[in-house]
Write a structure and sequence with these properties.
Length: 285
């Protein structure tokens, strides 16, 4: 289990019956989470007076009930700054549980100044910022133009706007294939592919059937002595053991080792942990 327990600007206050009570900076939100299968005592008064709450609709999707939050606000983590913005599908623009991966990536990059990092399905850029903070040359790729724009804002907010980060709005597989033809190589690769998606030409992506082929393709971009590869998923169809076996199989010809586990957030009220996706880390020798 990889626990993200070094936050100051974020806190998972409590979790009960399919919902999280969370603090982002000074604002408290309630968001649905299907992994919260238990019931807490809900003794924290903020359950009754959140600043915003995401309400599920019976027909799917949902909406934010905004009470006292601005359109955007900032939180920090180890010097990085992120814009928080309540968005569709309960998103806020950051996945706090990923902090354990950001810390791991920074630790690896400290051993190789100027390393080249490829961040695929890169969302709002937290991993790109972590890499840039260590002096890495970063290529940030995501198919959503709005998320890439937010990543650029986060990089600038973090005081790293002058770092060598290349932002691309592109289909990740098509980009990887072009990079292979160009002979590009990377010291580290990070990816967080979606469970399901459609490409611009109507192509269907289903992670359970597409991930292995995509990973083996992308691994061809690694340099001779890679630092690491991080593969993350939030798909309920992929267990820690299945991801571990997939990554170990894909990297079997590389020198190094793999460790896999659930990402988790500590719950302040109980001292227990909320599972939040699965990460596999291949570390080169």
């Amino acid at each position: 289990m990889f626990v993200s327990d070094l936050w100051q600007d974020y806190e998972l206050i409590d979790a009960s019956r399919g919902e999280r009570l969370e603090r982002f900076g000074k604002y408290v939100l309630i968001r649905p989470d299907p992994k919260v299968l238990w019931e807490s005592e809900k003794s924290d008064r903020r359950w009754n007076a959140p600043d915003a709450r995401y309400l599920r609709a019976n027909t799917g999707g949902g909406r934010w009930e905004i009470k006292k939050v601005p359109e955007n606000w900032e939180i920090t983590y180890h010097g990085a700054r992120f814009l928080i913005h309540p968005m569709n599908f309960k998103h806020t623009g950051i996945f706090p549980e990923q902090a354990a991966n950001w810390d791991y990536l920074r630790a690896r990059l400290k051993t190789r100044p100027g390393a080249r990092v490829l961040n695929l399905f890169a969302y709002t850029g937290a991993a790109s910022i972590a890499a840039a903070a260590e002096g890495a040359q970063v290529v940030h790729v995501d198919a959503a133009r709005g998320m890439v724009a937010r990543a650029k804002e986060n990089l600038a907010l973090s005081g790293l706007g002058d770092r060598p980060v290349r932002f691309l709005v592109d289909d990740c597989e098509k980009f990887v294939r072009r990079e292979l033809r160009r002979g590009s190589r990377y010291d580290a690769i990070v990816m967080d592919p979606p469970s399901f998606g459609r490409g611009p030409g109507g192509e269907t992506w289903k992670i359970e059937t597409a991930l292995y082929d995509f990973l083996t393709l992308t691994l061809q971009l690694l340099c001779e002595k890679p630092l690491c590869v991080l593969v993350n998923t939030y798909s309920d169809g992929i267990t820690p053991q299945s991801l571990d076996t997939l990554v170990k199989t894909a990297t079997r010809k590389l020198a190094g080792f793999t460790e896999t586990g659930e990402l988790a957030l500590p719950i302040t009220s109980s001292g227990l942990y909320l599972p939040c996706g699965v990460t596999s880390r291949f570390q080169g020798e």
